[in-house]
Design a protein that fits this description.
The chain has 82 residues and is mostly helical. It is built from two helices and no strands. The protein has a domain at 30-82.
Length: 82
């Protein structure tokens, strides 16, 4: 039986988080942004619905920016520590 080190365990956990959960969250934020664009374009004549579309686009962009920043920081920390 082969035993791993703490370093290998942390690397595996970091890879799992970065490779699966983060990609899923990026996809979700992109869907929110695209949904906002669709609402904005389809409701060109309704100002209230266009405002809702703008909000979806805004929060989609904010979510993408925050996740990209966090993903970068986590990658830097993992590469520095390990």
């Amino acid at each position: 039986m082969k035993t791993g080190t703490i370093r290998e365990l942390l690397t595996s956990a970091g890879d799992l988080i970065l490779d699966s959960v983060v990609i899923l969250l990026f996809a979700l934020a992109l869907v929110v942004f695209i949904w906002g664009v669709i609402k904005y374009v389809i409701n060109a004549d309704n100002e209230d619905e266009r405002q809702k579309g703008k909000k979806f686009m805004f929060w989609g962009i904010i979510a993408l920016a925050v996740m990209l920043t966090v993903w970068g920081i986590v990658s830097i920390v993992i590469n520095t520590v390990l």
